[in-house]
Specification:
Elements lengths: L2 H11 L12 H10 L8 H10 L1 H8 L14 H13 L2 H10 L2 E4 L21 E4 L4 H5 L2 E6 L5 H16 L3 E4 L5 H11 L4 E5 L12 H10 L1 E4 L9 H14 L2 E5 L6 H11 L3 E5 L9 H8 L3 E2 L3 H8 L21 H9 L6 E2 H8 L3 H13 L3 E4 L2 E4 L15
Parallel strand pairs: 3-4, 3-7, 4-5, 5-6, 7-8, 8-9
Antiparallel strand pairs: 1-2, 2-6, 10-12, 11-12
Helix pairs in contact: 2-4, 2-6, 3-4, 8-9, 8-14, 9-10, 11-12, 15-16, 15-17, 16-17
Amino acid sequence: MTPEAAAGADLAEGGGGFGVGGGVADAERLARAALTRVLEPGDEQGGRWLREFGAVELMRRLTSPAEEEAAPAGVGEQRLSGYRIRAAAAVPERDLDAVAAGGGRFICPGDLEWPRQLDDLGDARPVGLWLRGRPSLRTWALRSVAVVGARACTPYGAHMAAALGTGLAERGWVVVSGAAFGVDGAAHRGVLAADGATVAVLACGVDVGYPRGHAELIGRIAEQGLVIGELPPGAHPTPSRFILRNRVIAALTRGTVVVEAEYRSGSLVTARSAQKLGRFTMGVPGPATSGLSAGVHELLRGEGVLVTDAAEVIELVGDMGELAPARRGPVLARDLLDPVAARVLEALPGRRPAGVREAALGAGTSTDETIGRLYELHSLGFVERHGDRWQLTPTATHAPIERRGGS
């Protein structure tokens, strides 16, 4: 689906592009926006509280220190104190105004735009998502694939990631990645070059261009696609946030493709998250001697599926009938011969002429049949006659069929 089509779907649902559609009350939205400053991404304890109390009640309890009996249970006093300090400092109206000023929005469970597959994360589900970009995230996520891999990738890895991005985009698929250096950036650029749809999932605020070297790329993605994140405006990334961000990439998409990854790689965290969620997990093989492909190869030895291009990815994650083309080597002219003629051709020695009786004996046919087949092979250019003897032509065994007219 093109970005324009997805935007149209968003408008049809009542999302209004830059607005938010759905039945979420203002108090719920404000509370969830505030909680993105209180709870770290993937905080399962916070997710249990949300499930038990709801966002509005949870914020009330965290901001009412006088009501000790109302304090959420399940964590130590020191950790609870940290939650309270962050809750008291949260100003959700300011964050919502800031993201709206940049052409963005905040969505949460209950909105029409909320991708329901994120609910598979259970208590680790995002509190909400901050977005930049016009299209509907829910619509795009329905037909999306994650392409992730090494930051310090090789030229081969960058080429494969870009080719996958372009190929998927040309077939109407949305490519989701993390906007990092290396494979992520190459995949996004491949999509943008094809004027396709791509989503960048950040481990910081959507108004923060990180990594700084990709600030321009992230801006292009926001214009042509979507930039999303769990953290509020102005929030900066940390190592743990990068790891936790990967679960969103895995849950949002139908499958994850890993292009180059060492044994200890955040990309493998994404792949393992996808496996746990029942999503497809794929890997692009590399040289057996490459340490950057070692993690991918380990993945492929398990439940991962080997893929080499976009068609093979879509065959796995797409609808019934979306099959990759059959793979085969070049068709040789001799492949088209009937079985008897092929046996006569094979019976002729490779380096010297042979008589009819020798060829008939080798082919297991009569002399008359052999003579007829030899004249047939002569007309096709496979053999040449030297008196009463026959010899293979130089191209008899290796000449491929000449393709014409695109066939």
